[in-house]
Specification:
- The chain is mainly alpha-helical and about 180 residues long.
- It is built from five helices and two strands.
- It has helices at about 1-30, 45-60, 75-95, 120-135, 140-170, and strands at about 35-40, 100-105.
- A two-stranded antiparallel ribbon has the order 1-2.
- Helix 1 runs antiparallel to helix 2, helix 2 (about 45-60) runs antiparallel to helix 5 (about 140-170) and helix 3 packs antiparallel against helix 4.
Length: about 180
C-alpha cells in the first residue's frame, strides 16, 4: 500500500504545483486585460486547507495506521473520474482558470463546458478529491475533517465569487 500511496500522493502534489504555475501565468495574462483580484483575504485559508489535506493524508496513512479498505477501487475510480472533470473545467475556462478570483471588467461569465450545467463545477471536483483520495487509503479522519473544513472555506469563497460575478454583470468594479 505504501508504494501505491507514494506514487499517487506524489502525482497529486505535482499536479497541484503545475496548477499553481498555470494559475500564476493566467493571473498575469488577466492583469494585462485589466483584470484584478477580489476576495484575496480568504485565499490563505484555501492554501491552509490544502496544506492540511496533504499533511493529514500523509500522516494518517504513513503514521496513523490507516489501511486501504477492500473497496478502495471505488473511491479511487471516482477520484480518477474527477480528474477528467478537473481538466474539462481548466480547458473550458482557458486563460481565465485560476486558484484565485480574478475579475475582468465587462466580461460575461464563461458558459461553456461544465459551466453550461453547473455554476461552480471546479469546486465540485475539489470537494470530491478532498474526500475520495483519503477514502481510497482508509484515511477516514482526514476525509471527515477536510470535508468539514472545505465546506466552511467554500462557503466564503463562493460568496466572494458570486458577488464578483454579479457586480461585473451589473457593470461595476468590485475592488
Amino acid at each position: 500500500m505504501h508504494t501505491f500511496f507514494a506514487v499517487i500522493f506524489t502525482a497529486v502534489v505535482l499536479q497541484r504545483v503545475a496548477e499553481l504555475r498555470l494559475a500564476r501565468r493566467n493571473g498575469e495574462r488577466v492583469k494585462e486585460l485589466g483584470g484584478y483580484e477580489v476576495g484575496a483575504g480568504h485565499y490563505k485559508y484555501i492554501v491552509m486547507l490544502h496544506a492540511a489535506f496533504f499533511a493529514g493524508l500523509a500522516a494518517e496513512v504513513l503514521l496513523g495506521g490507516a489501511s486501504m479498505p477492500e473497496w478502495w477501487w471505488l473511491p479511487f475510480s471516482l477520484f480518477v473520474a474527477a480528474q477528467e472533470l478537473r481538466i474539462w473545467c481548466i480547458r473550458s475556462l482557458g486563460m481565465y482558470w485560476n486558484t484565485r478570483i480574478w475579475v475582468v471588467p465587462d466580461m460575461e461569465p464563461v458558459r461553456r463546458g461544465p459551466y453550461r450545467h453547473f455554476r461552480h463545477p471546479n469546486y465540485i471536483v475539489v470537494t470530491l478529491e478532498l474526500v475520495l483520495l483519503p477514502l481510497t487509503f482508509g484515511a477516514l479522519r482526514t476525509a471527515a475533517f477536510i470535508a468539514l473544513a472545505n465546506a466552511l472555506v467554500l462557503r466564503q469563497r463562493i460568496a466572494a465569487e458570486e458577488a464578483a460575478i454579479a457586480a461585473v454583470v451589473r457593470g461595476r468594479n468590485v475592488q
